[in-house]
Design a protein that fits this description.
single chain, alpha/beta, Leucine-rich repeat, LRR (right-handed beta-alpha superhelix), Rossmann fold, 15-stranded mixed β-sheet, 7-stranded parallel β-sheet, disordered N terminus
């Protein structure tokens, strides 16, 4: 089980989610300092921790990391199979290949105070569909290289939420892009987009202009100008200019080839933009800023193409006659927030029938609605009238439910919410009248009490219940500790259990006996939680996710066993949101971290540590024969480094030593064909066709019957040059990884280091190299080359290799 704290308490463990069993090694250790991981289907349960992230529940695995100052360290806590990732913190420059270990990312949000994005920073994210740059403060300038987005061939939505871009130029947008959002930025003129994104209106790859579904420039408070032709030829679905200083009439001069929807809420637009609607034959229009006041019939005559109209907060006091008849295609009308005390939408004498589906008249101060108000709205499906001054009378209607007939009235009820009652019926011990028993098809139940129930309410016996939330059930008058089994009973199909403010204090194994399908447990706003030690035996049956949010663990020795259990359980991922602290013994203001405090003060914890230490020693003794057989690589490293050190003391230089081989070639069995067909003829053959060198090949020259690690060490010592043929297959081969690490260690530690050459048979990220930071000097120096797939590049490759190997000779 993994324990993570939002304050970074430094507790490490094994994060092994059930959906990652095939992608993570069983020995992988993860330190989830400030990272929360969840499946997309459980996102609503922890949504408040994703408020500033563009992630959605359609993605299978999500992660959010906060307070990020070291990107490499933070990403160690994130599984490589995540498809949604949000990073928040203080990093100014995003380095190259920063996220190349996450090729399956679909959505990425960066709230890192970035000032610069280096070329190749987003390399490897070919599946990314949505990218968001967020800035926590205004006038935070972000500089992007013109080719910074070249690797994002699948990108569909690009969001800039805060950073200023007006000092950028010539940024190339991916051809797959469908939505561009630039909000809270420093834009003053729409024409600035033509300099920042020169291919926005004119695609450089074809003669046709670009097509975008959405261009959102909202909340650019200084945006007030529209240079003529700034978006010349762009085919646009929706343009958002809300909360700017733009006038809807200025859209006509942008040069848009096509526009379907326009939103100019809270702008300087003071009248219905009839000419703009007519020019583009708009289907949707949103306008409103308290300044419109009145709409003329002449303006309505230009609006026959509208299907959706929002005139919200427009200061309207009346509507012109034939208002709906002037817009025969209208399906959705929003007039909320105006000053309409009376509304007349239908004219009976015309016989007109509107196709309107949705009508919103909320917040208008309506006093009355005449019978003819809706006479022409035979297709109306949704009517909103809240927050008016209407009086509604239902004469002869009534509703009376009893427990005996509730299943007859609601035979297909799947979701039920009970709010604000004493819940005495829910807590009834008389199961014959317990109405929930009459709802065998119920799948979701949410119960919120009022704090007046004298005893806990036990929910049980619902065979199809999958989601249960219990909130505010704690009895305020005489609160007492509550155990989980007092709140839930036999619920065989329950998958999600949320408990908040229930007074829960004890969590024991007995509570999970009737919850065999439970996958997620959320404990919110609970205090002094004690996890019973019997949960150790229940570990395989524990939920896959346990979230303890805004709750506290009790500073009792009964919890002393938790930390090693968190680290040792491979199935459950646990997130503990607040830092867990214990009060000082002297009663002062300072507090101590929970688990170190319990470890030092609880005898039970010491006994547990001794028990775990004994188990570890026993396991080590059992493993000694295997370790002796396997010959751990660190022993080999030590032997090789000591040998090199002694040679340096004796002054033995490579130039004066007779080597058995010229080059030791490291490769995997799958790449043997390339070695035999390409490398061997070019190096072992006599000039001019070959180089006349003697190669040491593991399959051919290793001493039969000799241990593999000894063969590797002796062969490297007998060769002045080590050549490693690297591929993804080779990096997954234990022997090749051993050879590469040993060669790297000798290169850095030996007094007279041998030459190490790398040949990449296919593109490989530095992050995939073992301890790749050790190869930084090598890669900077140029002792590597990539095998070209095309014939015209092979001459340059062989010239480089001959230059590094020395003059040819024939034996």
């Amino acid at each position: 089980m993994q324990l993570a704290t939002a304050a970074g308490a430094g507790m490490a463990g094994h994060l092994l989610l059930h959906s990652l069993l095939l992608s993570l090694p069983l020995i992988a250790g993860w330190t989830a300092s400030n990272c929360l991981v969840t499946e997309g289907s459980w996102l609503p349960l922890v949504s408040r921790f994703f408020l500033n992230c563009p992630l959605n529940s359609r993605l299978p695995l999500l992660a959010v990391c906060t307070k990020v100052t070291n990107l490499t360290q933070a990403l160690e806590a994130v599984p490589q199979s995540v498809e949604g990732l949000c990073l928040a913190g203080s990093i100014s420059v995003l380095p190259q290949d920063a996220l190349s270990n996450y090729p399956g990312l679909k959505v990425l949000g960066l709230n890192l105070r970035l000032t610069r994005l280096l070329p190749g920073a987003l390399r490897g994210l070919g599946q990314l569909q949505e990218l968001s740059f967020m800035a926590p403060q205004s006038k935070n300038y972000l500089f992007l290289h013109p080719n910074a987005l070249d690797d994002l061939r699948s990108l569909q939505k690009l969001n800039f939420l805060g950073p200023c871009l007006d000092r950028n130029s010539s940024i190339q947008l991916p051809t797959s892009l469908r939505q561009l959002v630039v909000r809270y930025s420093c834009l003053q003129d729409v024409g600035e987009l033509d300099d920042i994104f020169p291919d926005l209106a004119h695609s450089p790859f074809s003669g046709d202009a670009r097509t975008l579904d959405v261009l959102d420039l909202s909340f650019n408070w200084q945006l007030k100008m529209a240079s003529p032709g700034a978006l010349q030829g762009l085919r646009l679905g929706t343009l958002h200019l809300d909360h700017t200083k733009m006038d809807a009439a200025a859209v006509l001069s942008l040069g848009l080839q096509k526009l379907k929807s326009l939103s100019v809420l809270f702008t300087v637009t003071a009248e219905l933009p009839a000419e703009t609607v007519a020019h583009f034959e708009l289907q949707e229009l949103q306008v409103g800023n308290k300044q419109i006041g009145h709409i003329t019939l002449e303006a309505l005559a230009f609006c026959h193409s509208l299907q959706s109209l929002v005139l919200q907060n427009g200061g309207l006091t009346d509507l012109p006659p034939n208002f709906l008849a002037a817009m025969p295609r209208l399906q959705r009308l929003n007039l909320a927030g105006n000053q309409l005390q009376r509304v007349r939408l239908c004219m009976n004498e015309t016989g007109f029938v509107s196709g309107l589906w949705t009508l919103n008249l909320s917040d208008n101060g309506l006093l009355a609605l005449s019978p003819a108000t809706f006479s022409c709205l035979s297709h109306l499906r949704e009517l909103l009238l809240q927050r008016n001054q209407l009086t509604l009378t239902l004469d002869g209607w009534g509703l009376h439910l009893e427990t005996q007939n509730i299943s007859e009235i609601f035979p297909a009820l799947r979701q039920l919410t009970l709010l604000g009652s004493s819940l005495e019926a829910l807590c009834s011990q008389d199961t014959s009248s317990f109405f929930l028993w009459q709802l065998p098809g119920l799948q979701s139940l949410k119960v919120r009490g009022d704090g007046h129930s004298p005893r806990p309410c036990c929910i049980t016996g619902l065979p199809n219940l999958q989601e249960l939330k219990l909130d505010a059930l704690k009895y305020r008058a005489r609160p007492r500790p509550v155990q989980l089994q007092e709140l839930v009973g036999e619920l065989p199909r329950l998958r999600v259990l949320q408990l908040a403010r229930t007074g829960l204090e004890t969590l024991s194994a007995a509570a999970f006996q009737g919850l065999g399908s439970l996958q997620v447990l959320v404990l919110d706003w609970e205090k002094g939680l004690v996890l019973d030690g019997g949960l150790q035996e229940l570990s395989p049956q524990m939920p896959q996710y346990v979230y303890i949010l805004t709750s506290s663990l009790a500073c009792q020795c009964a919890n002393a066993w938790l930390e090693p259990w968190f680290e040792g359980s491979p199935r459950t991922y646990m997130w503990v949101q607040p830092p867990q602290l214990c009060p000082a013994e002297s009663g002062g203001g300072s507090k101590h971290p929970l688990f170190p405090f319990l470890l030092n003060h609880c005898q039970e914890a010491l006994e547990l540590e001794l028990f775990l230490g004994s188990c570890a020693l026993l396991l080590l003794l059992i493993s000694l024969p295997l370790l002796q057989e396997a010959r751990n690589s660190w022993v080999l490293y030590l032997q090789a480094l000591l040998r090199a050190w002694f040679q340096g003391l004796r002054g033995q230089k490579n130039e004066g030593k007779n080597f058995l081989y010229d080059v030791f070639v490291s490769h995997c069995r799958q790449d043997q064909g390339w070695v035999v067909q390409e490398l061997l003829p070019a190096l072992e053959g006599c000039p001019p066709e070959g180089q006349g060198l003697r190669l040491c090949l593991p399959e051919r020259d290793f001493e039969p019957g000799k241990d593999v690690v000894d063969n590797v060490a002796d062969s490297m010592a007998s060769s002045p040059i080590t050549l490693c043929a690297l591929s993804h297959r080779a990096l997954r081969t234990p022997r090749c990884r051993l050879e590469l690490r040993l060669a790297t260690s000798l290169l850095l530690a030996a007094p007279h280091p041998p030459v190490l050459l790398l040949i990449f048979l296919e593109p490989v990220s530095r992050h995939q190299l073992p301890r790749y930071h050790r190869l930084a000097r090598l890669l900077r120096r140029g002792d590597y080359c990539v095998w070209p797939k095309e014939d015209e590049g092979k001459d340059s490759f062989w010239a480089w290799l001959r230059g590094r190997l020395g003059q040819p000779r024939c034996r």
